[in-house]
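A reminder before we start the practical. When you read a complex entry, don't treat the lines as separate problems. The point of joint prediction is that each chain is placed relative to the others, so the output describes one connected object in space. Small molecules and nucleic acid strands, if listed, are placed in the same frame. In the example below there are four entries. Take a minute to note the order of the lines before looking further.
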Amino acid sequence: MSDSGQFATLWKQMAVGLGLEVDWIPGDWHHGVDPEAVSARLADDRAHAIKAVCVVHNETSTGIVSRIPELRQAIDQAGHPALFMVDSISSLGSIDYRHDEWSVDVTIGASQKGLMLPPGLSFNAISDKARAAHRQASIPRSFWDWTAMLAANEQGLFPYTPSTNLLYGLQEALAMLREEGLSNVFARHQRHAEATREAVRAWGLEMVAASPDDYSASVTAVVLPKGHDADDFRRLVLDRFDLSLGVGLGRLAGRVVRIGHLGDLNDLSLLGTLAGVEMGLTLARIPHNGHGVEAAMRALVAPVG
Amino acid sequence: MSDSGQFATLWKQMAVGLGLEVDWIPGDWHHGVDPEAVSARLADDRAHAIKAVCVVHNETSTGIVSRIPELRQAIDQAGHPALFMVDSISSLGSIDYRHDEWSVDVTIGASQKGLMLPPGLSFNAISDKARAAHRQASIPRSFWDWTAMLAANEQGLFPYTPSTNLLYGLQEALAMLREEGLSNVFARHQRHAEATREAVRAWGLEMVAASPDDYSASVTAVVLPKGHDADDFRRLVLDRFDLSLGVGLGRLAGRVVRIGHLGDLNDLSLLGTLAGVEMGLTLARIPHNGHGVEAAMRALVAPVG
Amino acid sequence: MSDSGQFATLWKQMAVGLGLEVDWIPGDWHHGVDPEAVSARLADDRAHAIKAVCVVHNETSTGIVSRIPELRQAIDQAGHPALFMVDSISSLGSIDYRHDEWSVDVTIGASQKGLMLPPGLSFNAISDKARAAHRQASIPRSFWDWTAMLAANEQGLFPYTPSTNLLYGLQEALAMLREEGLSNVFARHQRHAEATREAVRAWGLEMVAASPDDYSASVTAVVLPKGHDADDFRRLVLDRFDLSLGVGLGRLAGRVVRIGHLGDLNDLSLLGTLAGVEMGLTLARIPHNGHGVEAAMRALVAPVG
Amino acid sequence: MSDSGQFATLWKQMAVGLGLEVDWIPGDWHHGVDPEAVSARLADDRAHAIKAVCVVHNETSTGIVSRIPELRQAIDQAGHPALFMVDSISSLGSIDYRHDEWSVDVTIGASQKGLMLPPGLSFNAISDKARAAHRQASIPRSFWDWTAMLAANEQGLFPYTPSTNLLYGLQEALAMLREEGLSNVFARHQRHAEATREAVRAWGLEMVAASPDDYSASVTAVVLPKGHDADDFRRLVLDRFDLSLGVGLGRLAGRVVRIGHLGDLNDLSLLGTLAGVEMGLTLARIPHNGHGVEAAMRALVAPVG
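Here is the predicted structure of the whole assembly.
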C-alpha cells in the first residue's frame, strides 16, 4: 500500500485492524502512487510474501488520480503474483476505469459518488484469481465474506435484507449514464475539472496535485495561503452561500478546501460553485487575484478539441 | 385599464371577451401605469360610468412594477368610486404588497410564482366594497362566481373538487416564507434584482424598464442589440446550458429575453444563471462588454445598507 | 338536461348562471337518463330551440350510469339537430366510453378520477359540429373559450400557464392504463363493482340505483336504514378506520354513503374498504346481515365468464 | 446461543465465521429461548469461559418472541458474568423492549422493520460492561469496531460517509412513533397480531408458535397442511393479489408462510392482507374452514380491555 492520501491511509488502518501486515510505501500526498516504487518493492519480495497491491484510483482527499494501467505494468514487470486491488469509489462513473482491460483483481465501488445515489451500496468486481485466493483465505470474516453473496447472487438474491430502494435508484442512475454515454460523462468531468483549475490558477492559489498527469477529474483540492484557516473559510462560504466545500483531511486539515465536480453537474452549477468560492475569498480577505469565474467561463465556451 | 405590458393586454382581452367595455389608456411598455393619467381619466368620468381601475402590479413581460399606493392616491384624488383591482400574480411573495393598507378592492394572486408551487391555485382578496358590487353585478358567470366559494369557504369547504395536494404545498410554501421572514424575502429579491441589473449594465445592454423607480424585483427584461434574434439566443442558451430564459411577449417578441429571479433562489443559482447568459452572448457573437457576472458578484458581496 | 343526480343539477346551475335557458326533465335519482323522455322532448321542439342535450355519463352522487348509445339513438330518432354533450368526468378511464363511435359532440373529462391524478386538468373532446356551433356562439366567455386553446394547441402550446407537472402525471397515468390494457381496466372496475354490490346485498342494504342496467362500475351509493344518520356513520368509519366514504349529496344528504371503487385499486384494497364499512355498521349498531366481505370474496375468486 | 429459529442460526454462523466458539443450545423452533436451559448451561460454566448469552428477541422466521426479562433473571441466578446480547431488529418499535431496565449489555436494532425505513441503518445500544469488554477484545475488526464510531459520535460525526437521507427518515419515523405514543404502537401491534391469530384459528391452520406466551406481535408464521407446498401458495397469492407473504426459512422452508403485521399498518390493510390469504387458500384448494377474515373483524371491533 502507498501513502497517497487520506483514503489510502484509512484503507491501511482497516487492513491493520483486520490483522494484516502492511508494507507502507511513503508518499507526499502531492503525487499519485509511484509505479517504480511499487515495482521495486515487489522485486525485492522474492518469497512472494506480499499478497496484494492496493491502490486508491482517485484520492478524494487530494484530488489526485493514480495511473492504474502503469501500476498494472509495474506489477507485471516485477513478475509478482500479488493481487491488484483498486478503490474506485470516487472515480466510478466519473473517470474512465477498466477493471477487465487493466487486469485488476478486486475493484471496490460505491453508490454515493459518480453514481449519484445516497450511500448504502458497495460493489466488488472480482477476478478469477481473486476468487481462488478468497477460497483459500483464513482470515475471520462474516458480513464481508464473498461466499454467501456469490451463492445468493447466482439466483438473483442476497444473503441478507437488500437495499431494494437503492437498487431501483441504481437502475435509474445507470440509465442516466447510458443515456448521456459513458465517454461523454468522462469528457464532461474532464471539462469541468479543467475549468475549475483555470479558476484556481486565475486566483493565484496552489493545488494539492503537483503534476498535471495526476489531476483528478472529480475533485480539486486547493491550498489556502499560509495564515488562513481553511475551516473558517469553509464555514463562511457555507453560512453565506449555502455552499458546502470539502474539508481538508488528515495531514491537510485546516490548510485545504476541496471543490467537488462529479455526478449530476452542469456548467452553470459549476460556475455557481466557483462564484461562491471567489466571493468567499473576497469576504474572508484571503489574498487572491480574482477573475476565477471568468477564467472558468472562458474554458467552458472554448471550442473542444 | 392601462397598456403597461402583455399581461395588462391579456386582462383587457379577457374583459372584452366577457362583454365589458374597456377604457384603454395607452402606454409604451417602458413605464409603470401613470397615476396622473388614471386620475385625469377618472376626473373626466363625471357620470361614474367607470366601474373599476385594473392594474398589473408586476408586469412579467417587461420587468416593470406599477406603484400601487400612488395609483390609490390618484383614484382618491379624483374622488371617483371605481373599484381598484390589482393583478399581483408575479409579485405576491416576492415584492412588498399590501391589499388592506393600500385599500385595494380586488387582489388576484396565484400559486406558480413567488409561492413556488405548480400552477393550479388562484386567490382573490376582496374588500367589502367589492363584495357589495359583486352582489349587484349582472354579468353571466358560474365558475368564477364568488357566491358559491364564499358560502363554502365559511365552513372550510370548496364548492367543487379542491386541489388538496396544492393546498398542502401552499402550507409548506407559507411556512418557508414565514421562516425566512417576509421582509427578508423581499430584500433578497431586491438584492438579486440589483445584482442582475449590474450584470446587464456591465454587458452594456439595455433594459426594457426605462426608470429605476419602476424596476421589478422578480424579473428583468433585457433588450438585445438590433439585428440579433432573441429567440435564437434563447434556444442557444437552452441547448447549451439547460437554462430557460423568458420569451419576449407581445410587441417585445423576438427582441427581448427575460431573466427571472423570484421564488426559492439563492446567490449562487442567480450567478449560474447570469453566467449562462454571459457565455450565451459570447457564443452567439452578440456585442457586449462582458464582466456581468463579476459585476453581479461585486453587488452581492457589497455591505448591505 | 335531465335531473339524474347532483352533478346533473350542478351542471344545470352552471348553465343558468351563464344565462342559458334550461329545459329540465324531472328524474328520481334512481335511474339513468330516460332515452324516451329525451326523444319526446326533442320531437316536441319543432322550432329546434333546443341547442344541446346534456347528460352526465356516470353520476357520482347516485352510482348510476346513463346509457349514452341509447340516448344518441333517441336524439337521432327525433331527427333533432341538438348537440350531444356528455360529462364523462367520473367514467373516463374506468367505464367504457366512446366519443367518436357514439357521435358525442362535446365530451368533458378531468384528471382526478379514473386518470388517478390530482385535480387540475380538464379535457374537452369536440366534434366538428360543436366547433362550428362554437364559432357562432355569442355568449360572453374568456377562460373557457376554445378559440385561444385550439390555436395554441396546434403549436403544442397553451394560451396560459400550463400545469406542466400534471401533464407529466398524465403521461404516466396513460402509460399505466395502456400497460394494463383499457379493456382489462374496464373489466376490473366491473368486477370490483359487482363484488361491492354482493357485499351490499349480503348486508341486506339498498342501493340507490334501482336497475341493474344502470349500475355504475366506479361508485356504489348505499342507502342506510331509516333512522340512521349517514354522516354520523361516515364520521365513525373515518375516525375508527381512516376510511373516507363519500357523502350523500343534494337530496340524498344524510341518507346515503358512497363507496368509490375506481382508479388504481386492487382486490385487497377493495376488501379492506368493505371490511371498514361492515365493521362500521356493527359499531354504529345499524341493522345488517353481516357477511358482506365474505360475499365480496366469493365474487372475486369466482371464475370469470 | 440457542437454536430458536433461522435468525439465531444465522447469528451463530456469523460468530463461527468470526472465529468464535459457540455453545449451541438445541431448540425446536416452536418455543422461545428456555431460561432454565440458559441458566443450567451457565451454572455448569464454573470457569466463566462463556463470554456472552446471545438471544434473538423476536424470531422473524417463526413468529416467536423470547422473554428477555426472564432470561436476564436466568443469567443473574446463575451468577455468571457473561454479557447479555439481544437482537431486537424485528421487535424495535413494534414490541415493548427495554435495554436499560432489562440490563441488556448489547442491543442490536435496524431501520427496516418497526422503524418503517428502508434498510441501511443499524443501531447498537451498549452497556458500560460491554464497552469495557470491547476495550479488551482481541478479535480482528474494522468496520464493526465501536472505537472509531464512539469517538466520532461524541462530536456528532461518523467515522465514514453516513447515510444522511436515512437519518432524516429516522427523524420522521421517530416523530411518527412519538405522535402515536409508544404504548399505543405496541398495543396496536398486539391487537393486529391477535386478529391475525383469530383468522388462523378460524381457518383451522396451525401456527409455528406452540405457546401463547411466545406469540410475536409483529409476525405470524402459519404451517400449511401436509402435501401443500408453501412456495406454490405464496406465488399464487403474489400473482393474483399482489400480496407478498414471507417465505418459510431454514428448516421451515416450503411448509410455512409468514404474515407480517408490523410498522405503519392499520386495521383495513391487515384485513386486506388476511382476505388475500383466505382467497388464496380457496384458490389453491388448501383445506381450511374459511371465515378467517370475519373472525379477525370480530376481534378488531371487540371492546378493548
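Discuss with your neighbour: The radius of gyration of chain B is 21 Å. What might explain this?
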